[in-house]
Amino acid sequence: MHTNIVTRHASHPEDVKGYDTQKLRDHFLLEDIFQKDQINGVYSTFDRLIVGGIYPVTKSLELETVDQLKSDYFLERREFGVINVGDSTLVTVDGTDHKLGRKEALYIGKGTKEVIFHPSAEGQAVLYFNSAPAHTDYPTKKVGLDDAEKVELGSLENSNHRVINKLLVNSVVDTCQLQMGMTELKPGSVWNTMPAHTHDRRMEAYFYFDLDDDAVVCHYMGQPDETRHIWMKKHQAVISPAWSIHAGSGTSNYTFIWGMAGENLDYGDMDKVAPVDMK
Questions:
Q1: Which amino acids are annotated as binding site, given as ranges?
Q2: Could you tell me which residues come within 8 angstroms of residue 17 by beta carbon, excluding any fewer than 6 positions away?
Q3: Structural domain boundaries, residue 111
Q4: Known binding site for Zn(2+): residues?
Q5: Where, in this chain's numbering, is Zn(2+) bound (predicted)?
Q6: Helix (H, G, I), strand (E, B), or coil: what is residue 276?
Q7: Measuring CA to CA, which residue among 239, 78, 260 is closest to residue 169?
Q8: Would you state the torsion angle of the CA atoms of residues 169, 175, 176, 180, taken in this order, to the nearest 10 degrees?
Q9: What's this model's pTM, rounded to 2 decimal places?
Q10: Which of 109, 91, 229, 232 is CA-nearest to residue 168?
Q11: In total, how many domains does the chain have?
């Protein structure tokens, strides 16, 4: 087996108030998802989202079913979104090859039986993925940055000038509940998703990259009046429950991937929190 998925159970917000630093990290932070010639991830009971990394170095890696799914194959009842954060590579989906360049996304629908991730001929294939339960099958579709729905927000004066690339969202590709995109911060900007918000109808996961080895991001989570923080490095991900804010600030600009699953597909469905009201 080269597909390794561990389970993390949902946490009640009242319990999280009492977590120390290590317990908070143990429940929500994914530190080492990229392991040589492995598919690694976390099965979260928050909306049953699976979050993980794929790192084929010396051999191709087929997506295998795991015990949590009790299915004949991984995507028997699931959909899958993957974004390449490394060098160009190939992904084979039921016999069809899809070339995936850096920062390009691939949606793979429910019912797909064979998915194979290949090493890069140009360097390192490093792929980040989210997977959610699906009720119907939609076709595989590649989405590049030129295909994304783009929104430019913020300003350099407020240290939050950024471009949101909506990649695997319902305005670009048909999905059941999975939504994924990528936000790129401009040089000189360090704040993301500020003002912060929650969305009680869906959970979210963040993945940070485009950081130097000595750079870090402070990710903020928790209820708006009971916030917590987690210090993160590049190529790490964090789980954000529906009751939690999700925002961050870095020691430099960076890029992050956001992924959501839950009740609806409305990107604008959020409950904003004024910065002055957070505690």
A1: 197, 199, 204, 246
A2: 226
A3: 3-277
A4: 197, 199, 204, 246
A5: 197, 199, 204, 246
A6: helix
A7: 260
A8: -40
A9: 0.97
A10: 109
A11: 1
Structure tokens at 273: 């929190």
d(CA 2, CA 11): 28
- For residue 262, with 0-12 CB atoms within 10 Å meaning exposed, 13-18 middle and 19 or more buried, which class applies? buried
Q: Are strands 3-8 and 38-44 parallel, antiparallel or unpaired?
A: parallel
Place of tokens 């690694």: 40
Dump strand ranges (E) for 21-137: 29-30, 38-44, 50-55, 61-62, 78-84, 89-93, 96-100, 105-108, 115-117, 127-133
Report the 3 state secondary structure along 24-53. HHHHHEECCCCCCCEEEEEEECCCCCEEEE
Q: Within 10 Å of residue 10's Cβ, how many Cβ atoms? A: 14
Written as tens digits, the pLDDT of the chain (279 aa) is 899 999 999 999 999 999 999 999 999 999 999 999 999 999 999 999 999 999 999 999 999 999 999 999 999 999 999 999 999 999 999 999 999 999 999 999 999 999 999 999 999 999 999 999 999 999 999 999 999 999 999 999 999 999 999 999 999 999 999 999 999 999 999 999 988 889 888 899 999 999 999 999 999 999 999 999 999 999 999 999 999 999 999 999 999 999 999 887 877 788 899 999 999
* CATH code of the domain containing 205: 2.60.120.10
